[in-house]
């Protein structure tokens, strides 16, 4: 695995000089090398297919996962209402309703310039083993999530859903359902992307959460909450 850095920012008043850290895998290398070292796949440039970035990544050790009372409340609210089926990469690439729903969700939820058609196509062309989760209610699409699925771990990636479910806890249920399913598949970890700012706070509702602190996997959830709370100021 090749690791390299790009200068990012500096604060001379505290002698703090920032460098963003990236990685690229050799064709024969297992993607687990990157994930276990705190890297996640980069999708910002659709022409770049094999770049990972280091960030405050979070993951759940699946064997240790036990739903909290809040997690159980979310399960109870949505369990039995939705069906789920996996979609192959080819199905994702050719399903126009998936493309439309994906782009509309990110435009409305995160801003018009966040997700372009080109970026979505780049994500779907990742060399990593990709599949999709498709949830329906009464036969109608309700939510999706992408997954990088390896033999003993998954990366739960780019979940989105019908915005009529916004602020109901449905997004949390989608994530918990993926973890529950991974436990049934005897996987070791579920990677959940990053945890920054208000939008990442909900992930701390999982008590067994681990987070990458720049040098290793940390289990201090209270410290993570404090970092998330201060992100906007730093």
Write out key terms for the chains shown.
eight-stranded mixed beta sheet, 12 strands, four-stranded antiparallel beta sheet, 8 helices, 234 residues, alpha+beta, Aminopeptidase, 32% strand
Structural class: alpha+beta
Q: What is the name of the CATH class?
A: Alpha Beta
What's the helix count?
Answer: 8
Distance between the termini: 31 Å
Order of helices and strands: EEHEEEHEHHHEEEHEHEEH
Helix content: 25-40%
Strand content: 25-35%
Low-pLDDT regions: none
* CATH overall fold name: Aminopeptidase
Q: Number of domains in the coordinates?
A: 1
Main sheet: strands, sense, barrel: 8 strands, mixed
The main sheet orders its strands as 6-7-8-9-10-5-11-12
Shape: globular
* Strands, count: 12
In CATH terms, the superfamily is Gcn5-related N-acetyltransferase (GNAT)
What does this structure look like?
There is one protein chain. This protein is an alpha+beta fold and 234 residues long. The protein has a single domain (2-233), classed as Aminopeptidase. Helices cover 31% and strands 32% of the residues. It has eight helices and twelve strands. The protein has helices at 32-36, 69-78, 89-94, 96-110, 117-124, 170-184, 197-200, 221-230; strands at 2-11, 16-24, 39-41, 51-54, 57-61, 83-87, 130-137, 140-149, 153-161, 189-194, 210-212, 217-218. The protein has an eight-stranded mixed β-sheet with strand order 6-7-8-9-10-5-11-12, sandwiched between helices. Helix 2 crosses helix 6 (170-184).
